[in-house]
Amino acid sequence: MFAAERRQAILAMVRANGAMSLREMARVTQASEVTVRRDLRALEAEGHLSRRHGGAVAVGGSVHEPSYTEKTHVAADAKAAIAELAVGLIEDGDALVLGPGTTTQALARRLVRFHELTVVTNSLLVAQALVRARGVEVFVTGGTLRGPIHALVGGSAEQALAGLRTPKAFLSGNGLTVEHGLSTPNLHMATIDRAIVAAGREVVVLADHTKVGVDTMVQTLPAADITTLITDDGVPAAELDRFRAVGIDVRVATVAR
Question: Does one domain contain both 74 and 182?
């Protein structure tokens, strides 16, 4: 990977997640930490990010909310593999809630194969992916449009989810750690994500390797409240064992390389 290409990839990851560790950036780009440090110095000098001990944060730090455009090209193969594995948790006749995000969008694209399914979502991307799915009945919450991520938030969206009880709720988020659980940079998103969590008897988190180990500003739910974590094989085994230790069923998708 050439320097310019590597720096573009690093910047995309940091913007998509709000923050990234040096170790994770080196692993994803397959470069040495020395090389990544040099890239970070260059990107900081250009005003694209801020260096921190052990990594970097997007301009605006952990409060930066990456847009759909920023996220769509980050770890696309991993998200596809995670979505394919997640489909195995769903059966015809199920009712489920899908939160916003590019990974839940990838899952929604795979739901067209079902003959009888009910999906509740606050994501316009999820709804759009299911427009032609004849066997899927889609309910979209009301609410205020959060344009950058194509999601509906606010009191109307929360009220639409209140009282719902479905077998499973699927959501993503911007960061996931054992200590802080699932998190997001935005207070409005945290509130609607909690409403989604409350609507599912089981909570399934879809988080690719660029999100695991990342901590953003607002906690959505603690790690111990996650039923199942579906991630990819880019996460170190030792990190996955830490999630298992708090009672999470961890499933790992293999990404073709």
Answer: yes
